[in-house]
Amino acid sequence: MCTGKCARCVGLFLIPLSLICIVANSLLLVPNGETTWTKKLSKQVWYMAGFIGGGLMVLCPGIAAVRAGGKGCCGAGCCGNRCRMLRSVFSSALGVIGAIYCLSVSGAALQSGPYCSVNGGKWSYPFENDSGSYLLNRTLWSECTSPPHVVLWNVTLFSMLVAASCLEIVLCGVQLVNAALGVFCGDCRKKSSPH
Q1: What distance in Å separates the CA atoms of residue 32 and residue 10, rounded to the nearest whole number?
Q2: How does pLDDT run across 132-177, given as a tens digit for each residue?
Q3: Side by side, which strands form the sheet with 144-146?
Q4: Helix, strand, coil proportions of the chain in percent (round to 5)?
Q5: CA dihedral over 61, 107, 43, 153, signed as positive or negative
Q6: Where do the structural domains in the chain lie, given as residue ranges?
Q7: What confidence tier does 80 reach under pLDDT thresholds 50, 70, 90?
Q8: What residues contact residue 4 under an 8 Å CB cut-off, 6+ apart?
Q9: Largest CA distance in the chain
Q10: What is the dihedral of CA 87, 88, 91, 93, to 10 degrees?
């Protein structure tokens, strides 16, 4: 596969993944779909790992990869696609960093569990010291009474962030290597070929 076609393909996967991360992080700000609980959220929600790390920091490499798959700044002439590929190298490295940030914060959030009211009383992290074993024991989830269904909400959305950020790390890594090859070797497409 040509470096340009590969870049475009990777970019078209990265863009929706970054949008999924942004939406998932936005939903974490409104547990159970209610704005009533916004002041009582887990600290990991406020780190905005899905919005900043897996979202915006990966959206940029996605767009750069799609653009690197088009004709270069000089057309098919002097440098072909090398200029855009070079930009894609740097933005892909930024994307890897953002996706790793999203993965680490989301993983920590799954391990410590949500911040909630335990049996209608004190607010705390009831699953913080059980090393994530609450994930396999749904009967423990009833300990969190407020916000309603907060454990399911957090587990679902942070799991989506973990899965999306893992894919983003792989795809940004692939694009990093692909773009580096594109910088040194150029694009294998012929001058007459379309975008």
Answers
A1: 33
A2: 789 988 888 988 888 888 999 999 999 999 999 999 999 999 999 9
A3: 123-124, 116-118, 144-146
A4: 70, 5, 25
A5: positive
A6: 3-36+44-185
A7: low
A8: 68, 69, 70, 81, 182, 187, 188, 189
A9: 70
A10: -120
The enclosing H or E element of 77 equals none
Q: Given phi > 0 = left and psi -120 to 50 = alpha, else beta, which region is 95? A: alpha
Asked if residue 45 lies in contact with residue 37, where contact means CB atoms within 8 angstroms, the answer is no
Output 157 or 40, whichever has higher pLDDT: 157
Taking the C-alpha atoms of residue 87 and residue 89, their distance in angstroms, rounded to an integer, is 5
Q: Which residues pair with 72 in a beta bridge?
A: 75
Q: Using CA atoms, how far apart are residues 179 and 82, in angstroms rounded to an integer? A: 8
Among left, alpha and beta (phi > 0; psi -120 to 50; other), residue 174 is alpha
Burial of 39 (0-12, 13-18, 19+ CB in 10 A): exposed
Q: Is the pLDDT of residue 18 over 90?
A: yes
Residue 78: pLDDT band by 50, 70, 90 thresholds?
very low
The SS3 of residue 34 is coil
